[in-house]
Amino acid sequence: MIRLFTRRAEVRRRPASIPAGMRVYVIGDIHGCVDLLSDLHERIVEDARSSRSEKRIIYLGDYIDRGLSSREVMETLLAGAPAGMKATHLLGNHEAMLLEFLRDSSIGPEWIAYGGLATLLSYGVERNKERGTAEEMLCLQRDLNEKLPTNHKRFLENLSEQLVIGDYFFAHAGVRPGIPLDQQKVADLIWIREEFLRSEDFHGKIIVHGHSYKTEPEVRPNRIGIDTGAYATGLLTCLVLEGASRRFLSKGFPSRGVRLFPQPRQSVN
Description:
Blueprint: H1 2-13, E1 22-27, H2 34-48, E2 54-59, H3 70-78, E3 85-89, H4 93-103, H5 108-122, H6 134-147, H7 150-157, E4 163-165, E5 168-170, H8 186-191, H9 194-198, E6 206-209, E7 218-219, E8 223-225, H10 230-233, E9 236-242, E10 245-251, E11 258-260
Parallel strand pairs: 1-2, 2-3, 5-6, 6-8
Antiparallel strand pairs: 1-9, 4-5, 7-8, 9-10, 10-11
């Protein structure tokens, strides 16, 4: 009995991991920075040559807004993942706001304040003289509905909200503490901030998220944040997971190389 108890305790304390034979690349918030995305894709392809494992790439959402090239980012994602990789694209709050604007023009001022103007301009939608009025929002909504390619809209409408691989749970913003992962609300997965960021609770998996940017990846015992503010800092970060290891590839990162972070030991039940 003592030996069995000891073995279970060792399992609870083991580092988080993903299944053997797999390497996962996770990209943080892109926000219209197509040049950083293209360069990071090249770095990922180069890095992937060192492994014969199954390779997956996960995009954490917020592909649009703020940066100047939202349409080009969308076209890059629609062109497919780097060769030999399976891609999963998650929903971010900025994609959700664009979709809502297509249905309800009244949220236009809020979306524009969050960086939506850059997306409108990238699709050739320009503001008129009646700025901020309900009439202008209706015009912008109509123009975007006309100019947003059908395959772009379909892509946005079919974005996943979460993903689980091994001991990791991937979502754009995070999770609400105290709520089982399979009962999380979409609004929290794409919008939550302080309640999640302040929490020291273990959520059942290590949460990998974007949404709340820091100038370096943020590694905590219960979560890993990889939004490094590409549109503001010029830093686009990719987390690489393989077995129980973690490392980072980043385009524009000051070291311009791979940064390694040791794992704290934690429960992964």
